[in-house]
Structure formats: structure tokens, C-alpha cells
Amino acid sequence: MACCPFATLLYAILHAVTFLEFTIGADTLPPNQTIVNGQTLISQSQIFEVGFFSPGASANSFLGIWYRNTPDVVCWVANRNNPIRDPEGVFLAIDRNGTLVISSAGRVIWSTNSSGRVASNPILQLLDTGNLVVVDEAGESSSRESYIWQSFDYPSDTRLPGMNMVDDPDTGQEKYLTSWRNSDDPSPGNFTYRIENQGLAELVIFQGTTKTYRTGQWNGLGFTGVSANPGPAFKSNSKFKNDELRYSMNEKKDKWNLVYTLPRDPCDNYGQCGPYGICSTEKTPICECLKGFAPKAQQDWDWSSGCARSRPLNCRGGDGFIGVPGVKFPDMLKFWVNTSMNIGECPAECLKNCNCTAYANPYITDGRSGCLIWYGDLIDIREVYGADSKQIVYIRLPVSELESNNNLQKTKRNKKMPEKRLKRRGNNSSTMSHLKVWTRAIFMQCRFPTAARRKNEDLELPLFKLSMIAAATNNFARGNMIGEGGFGPAKLLVNCVGKLVIVRKKICNETRGKLATMIAAAS
């Protein structure tokens, strides 16, 4: 009996050595074997590693996948909603049915759902793509269709190459990225990134249930609202804001390199200019109305109310269309799409329904096939610079608006702020007698212009704080007045900035007490 303890000890040592050899460099885990805290699987080409980890300053543990050379770059987390409070005694195992189980102290912390498929000899394998899969070792095929389970079907916050983000209509399974709550907590945060496909796919970011950004519809070459810039990996919301950050991995420096971030600018914010508004970062202000529309609420300075028709539609045959090129298509809130039609058939189809407000060809490839029709409000439109010239949305307008559009557009485009040459002559002042002041007004507009006025603003003139102007003119004292016109009294300002400028004061939004200032430089 004395040899039994020795034999038991020897068996334990041999078993430990065998298990250690298995866990170092191995990419597979057979049934009834386990991975404990401190042990990992490594993909065949040493790219990815899977095991237990503790993020940031957290004392909790999670099962995750990370780049082997950069352990802090975690791409996938299994038990996001079920942290391991005590890492001692925790292990990952695969049973005979191919189910993965994380267990600790006899309690199941996390497990995979059964696919209903029967495997004679299931194994867990970490692939070089970063995909953790359960396959049947007895099977001849290693294709995606042969996977009993795969981590790519359950994304965390990172999209890796080869990851299919399309929802499965057969099983009802949804696939989307969700931000971490913070750098110490990988549980689902408040922002999600997903593909919406209602006949035309687009990428969308939500904050909770509120849509905050969308790329625009896929047009056959790219998304209508963003330039195509494919990268090896997507990482969503790494700073826990409503941004989609696209990264690429620098293999030499073992770190993420930021490629670009979405949203890129204010015009990427969902519905920035409201219904029938169009956003352009090249304009000041950035919002204006589509042709044939006017601001719905002129007292609103944030443009959230959008625009309304200047003239009502005539649904008895008195309507037509005007093309707006180079824009992100409106959101498909109420729509109809037919991919077998051609663009020439779209107008007649739209005019059949008085609620139809616009149409477009959804694809700029394959001879511009298909017809996309919008019903109701058109929202989230922005200019896209460098967009394909075939990317046009046709807005429905009454014929009366179309007939007057050319003359109206000419008039408004040539319309400038009035220039006044102010002369102030004094009997004993030759300097003032030759002073010529040209007033060119730059002011905060009480409403944003229609699209016919879409011209770059002259931003060369200096802007001053109201407090500085008030101090320089002695609170707009009448003694400093040099003239008066349609915008109110003009004041001469000669100090504070060392320039001669003209300022005007006017209340343009009495209900909200907003104050607009107009500034002009002296010639």
C-alpha cells in the first residue's frame, strides 16, 4: 500500500505535463478536456488566442479572444453579461454534444445554445480568422456550413474579416456589434452597430433605440452616404461614444491604427436638418431646404423642425420632378422598391400615389436597374462630395414650382446682401470727407435659405463677441451712429481691434430673445 501514494503522485505529474503540452500552442480542445485560468488555445498561425482575461482594472474574469501579440486588443467576449467573480476553479469545456460550458464551483456561468446537430466527435478549434468554432472531427468538410457553433455568429464589439453581419431570417438570430460599457467592463454598452436590410442594405448606429447615424443605402458600388474604404477590421465604439471607429492592425507595432471614424461631421448626425432639409458642411449654415421647400419654423435656429412645401402638390396630374444629384438618399421609413423596373418607369409609378414624395434608381450599376420610391417625409439627406453623378434622387414638386424654378433660382443665386457706400463729410476734416465704407453684412440668420441660395458664404470678415462690440460702441449709443437702414442702426467701431468696422444690432427672434449681429469691414 505504500506505493500507492507515489503512484498517484506520478500519475498526477504525468497528467499535468501532458495537459500543459496540450494547452501551449494547440488550437483545438477535444471533449472532456478543459481550459483553466492561465491556459489558452492559440490559432495555427499564432495570430489569435483564446482564454480567460481580466479587462483593465477589473477583478472579474471573462472568456475572450485577442490578438496573441497584443493581449489588450480583445475582439470577442463570451460571457459579457455573466462575469466570473472568482477566477479560481473556473474552466471551459466542450461536452460530447458539442456544447461549450464555462463552469466554476459546480455552477454553469455560460454555455452555448444547441444547434440541434449531432456530432460523433466534436472539437473546439480557434481559427486564424479569429473565429472560435465547434466542428465534428469525423466530418470531412471544414467549411462554414459544417460548423456546429461559431463565435462569428455572436459578435461583441469588433467585426473581423469574414464575419457575416446579416441577420438570419430562418432562425431569427440578429447579428450586430455592441460597445463595451467601459474599458473595465465588456458588458453591452449603449451603442449598437448593425446592418439594416429592407431590400437595400445600409449600416446604422443606434444609441439605445434611437438611430444616430446611417451610411445610406448600398447602390451596387458603395453606400450612398459614405465613401468606400474597406479595411481589415471594424471596431465599434472603442471610446464608448456613438462613433463607429474603423481600425487596421499594425502587425509590426502590434496596435490598432485608426483609419477613419463615423460619424465624420455634423451632417452625419441622423436627421440633422429635419424633414426635407439637406445638410452640407461646405455651407454656412449647414442646413437648407430642398428646392420647392421653405423652413417650417423660422424661429428655430437648430433647424430640427425641417422644411415644408412652399406650394402644395396637385395630385390630379399637375406634378413633376426635379433631380438632386450627389446626395445621400433619404431614410427608407416608408418606401417601395422594385428591382426589375428601370428608371424611366419610376415617375409614372410615383405619380399613382399622392403620398409619393420622391424616387430614385437604387443601383448605379447594371444599367441603373430598379426603382426606389419614398412615401411621406424625406429625412436625413446630406451632400456627398465625390459621389457618382448617377446618384440622383428625384423630388416631387407641383408643376407651378417647376415652371418658376429656373427664374426663381437665377434671382436667388444672384441675390447678395446690399452694398452701401457710406460717406461722412465734415467741413474741417479732409480725412473723413474721403472716407468710404463698404458694408458687407455677415450675420447669424434667423432662418436657413432655400437650396436656390446655396452659395459659399464670404467668411473673410472678422467676427466679434457681442460684449466687445457693445463696449466699443458704448452699448450702441446714438452718439456713435453713422447711419440707419433696414437692418437697424449702424455704429462706427474704431477701437478694440484697430480696424474701422460697421456693426448693426437687430432682434431677429423676439420670442427667444436671440440677438443677431452684422459686421462689415471698411474698404
TrEMBL record:
UniProt KW keywords: ATP-binding, Cell membrane, Disulfide bond, Glycoprotein, Kinase, Lectin, Membrane, Nucleotide-binding, Phosphoprotein, Receptor, Serine/threonine-protein kinase, Signal, Transferase, Transmembrane, Transmembrane helix
Catalyzed reaction equations: L-seryl-[protein] + ATP = O-phospho-L-seryl-[protein] + ADP + H(+); L-threonyl-[protein] + ATP = O-phospho-L-threonyl-[protein] + ADP + H(+)
PROSITE patterns found in the cross-reference section: BULB_LECTIN (PS50927), PAN (PS50948)
Stretches the record annotates as Disordered: 406-428
Bulb-type lectin domain boundaries: 26-147
GO process annotations (BP): recognition of pollen
EC number(s) given by UniProt: 2.7.11.1
Principal location listed in the UniProt entry: membrane
Annotated Gene Ontology cellular component terms: plasma membrane
Membrane-topology descriptor: Single-pass type I membrane protein
Keyword Disulfide bond: yes
Signal peptide: 1-28
Domain Apple residues, every copy: 315-398
Molecular function terms, GO-annotated: ATP binding; carbohydrate binding; protein serine/threonine kinase activity
Gene3D superfamilies: Bulb-type lectin domain (2.90.10.10)
Name of one Pfam family that matches: PAN_2
Name assigned to this protein: non-specific serine/threonine protein kinase
Organism (species): Sesamum calycinum
Lineage: Eukaryota, Viridiplantae, Streptophyta, Embryophyta, Tracheophyta
